[in-house]
Design brief:
The complex is a heterodimer of chains A (388) and B (139). Chain A has helices at 2-20, 146-150, 186-195, and strands at residues 30-42, 56-68, 74-85, 88-104, 107-115, 151-162, 169-181, 203-215, 220-229, 233-239, 242-248, 251-262, 265-281, 290-306, 311-322, 332-343, 348-358, 376-387. Chain A is mainly beta. Chain B starts with a helix and ends with a strand. Classes of the chains: A mainly beta (388), B alpha/beta (139).
Chain lengths: 388, 139
């Protein structure tokens, strides 16, 4: 299915180019990207499968993106990424590859492997140069679960509607297709670590959703997103030599958010809920059968201020709870963060960030914390990036 | 000696004054663009990637490389400096939501491109020859 979607996008792009372009110059081919290197240091726990308690530079990302515009309404593009964080990644993947046709302001479509337009920050959560933070609020935009939410194989329909003669606008998005998580996905690997159960084929299944963003003024926006998994998903599960099934019934993820941004000030907030249940069945070893339920509810509030053209400072508070967990630090995660970003010029930037974390609900790699998890952690991040 | 210093100061001031005068910007468009004026809000929308049309007419923005005209345009009409302006565009580009507008090296290149490309809209210094394009009034 996903190969057919990608082939369709590629065919549309290649078919349009000779029909419309007289030269390469006409195609407006552009190449952009960025590279960023991070350094992590923690008191107490090791985070993100790194040896952060002794200082870790194991956080590198690089993105290269090529786009072309064969006609004013048609654009095509592809983006590749290298990502390393502790024991995860260390591979080059395709972020997205799409053909986008914009009929007019009210209606456009894109298909291929496309960014999923959910929440306030999902479409830019992996674009480090686009925001002040070294780490987005992990309770809503977890770096280890990024691949699960970032993009899907399918399409997005989008548009912007004016509201009468006012300055207000409404942005709408409908999206649908297939979500794919590889067996190397950090989420799946951490799950395997804690349960001993592997998903050798990863996770895949259909989903669709919608996003609505209302902008009464240029400075203020509020919106909501809903992602729906309409059918039961199942995946092959293995435990040693035993083979079984991992399943989850139809469920939904919800996002509600608002943002105010004017001149030097930005204030935003978001609420996220992810309720779902799951089961494992192993016909040949029923002792491995299990069921479970998560009801993650998370929120954050953030603010930033541009002190000068080059220096921006910010703060956020984020909290997450799993209402199905027992009352202990594994039920929650709370994180106060102070952040700063300095732009040397339009290409080079640096970030510094201090986190004050309580709780262990957000993913930790048990193999990096053999003595068990402490209930609180301080995390310091330094990051340098170059964008072009 | 004093007179020489005053003369140098006078010439330097005049040079800066002339340079600043040249940086008065005009918003120009291809003659086929079916509007003669544009609101500041519409201009911001087009040059920040929020919109690709003005009053129902599809337009294609082009940018100037760093220059006095570019800085003046951003300051007067967009309300951002160059770094956050280009950073915002890269966010759109790197998330697959837009294609980066062409960035041209000087005013003459902008005039030539706008004159020869349907829907093109750009900005130049006031003193740049621009006979083949139309000037949009910004309300």
């Amino acid at each position: 299915m996903k190969n057919r979607i990608l082939a369709g996008a590629l065919a549309l792009a290649l078919g349009a180019i000779p029909a419309c372009a007289q030269s390469l110059e006409d195609l407006n081919i552009q190449i952009h990207g960025y590279a960023a290197q991070g350094f992590l240091y923690t008191t107490q726990n090791n985070v993100f499968s790194t040896n952060s308690s002794t200082g870790s530079p194991a956080w590198t990302e690089a993105v290269v993106n090529m786009t072309a515009q064969p006609t004013p309404k048609l654009s095509v593009g592809v983006q590749a990424r290298y990502f390393l964080l502790g024991n995860f990644g260390n591979a080059i993947n395709m972020d997205w590859a799409q053909a986008d046709y914009k009929f007019n302001e009210k209606f456009g479509v894109r298909f291929g492997k496309v960014k999923t337009p959910m929440g306030l920050l999902n479409e830019t959560q992996d674009i480090d140069p686009s925001y002040i933070w070294s780490l987005l609020p992990q309770d809503v935009y977890g770096i280890l679960s990024r691949n699960s939410f970032l993009a899907h194989y399918g399409g997005v329909a989008y548009g912007t509607l004016a509201v009468g003669n006012t300055k207000a606008k409404v942005d709408w998005r409908l999206f649908g297709g297939q979500t794919v998580e590889s067996p190397n996905d950090p989420n799946i690997q951490l799950g395997q670590q804690s349960s001993g159960i592997a998903l050798p084929n990863g996770w895949t299944g259909p989903m669709w959703g919608a996003t609505l963003r209302i902008k009464p003024t240029r400075s203020f926006m509020f919106g909501a997103s809903d992602q729906i998994f309409v059918t039961t998903w199942t995946a092959v599960a293995t435990h040693g030599t035993e083979s079984g099934t991992n399943g989850t019934p139809a469920s939904q993820n919800y996002y509600y958010y608002a943002k105010y941004e004017k001149n030097k000030v930005m204030i935003a907030g978001e609420y996220f809920r992810q309720p779902y249940s799951y089961w494992y069945t192993f016909p040949t070893d029923p002792a491995l059968n299990s069921t479970g339920r998560l009801d993650q509810r998370a929120w954050y509030g953030m603010a930033s201020y541009k002190l000068t053209d080059k220096l921006t400072v910010g703060v956020y508070d984020t909290q997450a709870f799993d209402h199905q967990q027992a009352l202990n630090p594994a039920r929650y995660n709370k994180d106060w963060t102070l952040s700063g970003r300095y732009d040397f010029n339009q290409y080079l930037y640096a970030k510094a960030e201090q986190h004050f974390i309580a709780g262990t609900f957000v993913d930790y790699d048990a193999s990096k914390n053999p003595n068990g998890l402490q209930p609180s952690t301080r995390l310091t991040i330094l990051k340098m990036g170059v964008t072009f | 000696m004093k007179k020489l210093l005053y003369a140098i100061l006078l010439v330097a001031s005049a040079t800066v004054f002339v340079a600043r005068a040249q940086a008065q910007v005009l918003v120009i468009a291809n003659p086929g663009v079916n509007v003669s004026e544009v609101s500041k809000n519409d201009l911001i929308d087009v040059f920040t990637g929020s919109s690709t049309s003005i009053k129902g007419t599809r337009v294609m923005p082009v940018l100037l490389a760093e220059s006095l005209s570019h800085e003046r345009f951003l300051r007067e009409y967009i309300g951002k400096s160059d770094v956050p302006f280009r950073s915002a565009w890269r966010s759109l580009v790197l998330s697959g939501q837009a294609v980066m507008p062409r960035s041209l090296p000087n005013d003459a290149a902008v005039v030539q491109f706008v004159a020869n490309n349907a829907g093109a809209i750009g900005y130049i210094g006031e003193s740049t020859p621009h006979a083949d394009v139309k000037v949009l009034v910004v309300k």
